[in-house]
Design goal:
Blueprint lengths: L2 E5 L4 H11 L5 E6 L2 H13 L3 E6 L5 H15 L4 E4 L14 H29 L3 E5 L12 H21 L5 E7 L20 H12 L9 E4 L7
Parallel strand pairs: 1-2, 1-4, 2-3, 4-5, 5-6, 6-7
């Protein structure tokens, strides 16, 4: 009966991860995102599959809101078994036009939020001596793209954060995995002049998360890169 916490759960990869775990027997899902209406839609789908779903409208860049969501999960179900740090945003801009405020905003949602969310759930997971933390990094964590200074810097930092969490917790029963997906067909890509078939599906990313979680406690996939069959977009 896994308790799964997912940020950015209202659409795209987050929604796909929620629906994938909902197919597991007696799954309990804590769904975090800013838009309550979309979260309720995801929760209804997951409940129809047999899962228990807790809707927690949360701005993950708000420390107090994250703490409140974590308390709700702990009060309802105790320590999380799985934490999926998926919340993120991408706003492209050339370096000459990128403002400091825009840079800080992307770092806040793509990197700092993952630190805050991890801290909010980590103590209970370590006390339980078990759990799996996932970080939804990106191929932008290991290579640079034009117009992506803020996003690339944040995703490079996210991979660094994940690697440190792994090193500090590997002897305390916690598994830590970073996923580095390339172009995945989510709302972020809507309107782009490319066929949908050129992209990976959110379901493929979600199935990867579930497959990695399903390994025995003796094995951890530390990092995995996923790309469209024809390469980066």
């Amino acid at each position: 009966m896994p308790t799964v916490v997912i940020t950015g759960a209202s659409q795209g990869i987050g929604r796909a991860v929620a629906e994938a775990f909902a197919a597991k027997p007696h799954a309990r899902l804590a769904l975090l995102a800013r838009t309550e209406g979309k979260l309720n839609d995801v929760a209804d789908t997951c409940r129809a599959a047999g899962a228990d779903a807790l809707v927690l409208p949360t701005d993950v860049t708000d420390d107090a809101a994250v703490a409140e969501a974590a308390a709700a999960v702990h009060n309802a179900w105790g320590a999380a078994d799985v934490l999926v740090n998926n919340a993120g945003a991408f706003t492209p801009a050339p370096l000459e036009e990128l403002t400091a405020a825009q840079f800080r905003s992307q770092v806040a949602v793509n990197l700092t939020s993952a630190f805050v969310v991890t801290k909010a759930f980590l103590d209970a997971m370590l006390a339980a001596g078990r759990g799996h933390v996932f970080y939804m990094a990106s191929v932008a964590s290991i290579m640079a793209y034009p117009n992506g200074a803020a996003y690339g810097a944040a995703k490079h930092g996210l991979l660094g954060l994940a690697r440190t969490v792994r090193e500090e917790t590997k002897d305390r029963g916690l598994r830590v995995t970073s996923l580095l997906p390339g172009a995945t067909y989510t709302p972020s890509w809507e309107g782009v002049d490319l066929p949908e078939e050129r992209f990976m599906t959110p379901e493929d990313i979600a199935d990867t998360v579930c497959a990695i979680y399903g390994l025995s406690d003796r094995t951890v996939v530390e990092e995995v890169v996923l790309r469209p069959q024809e390469g980066d977009v």
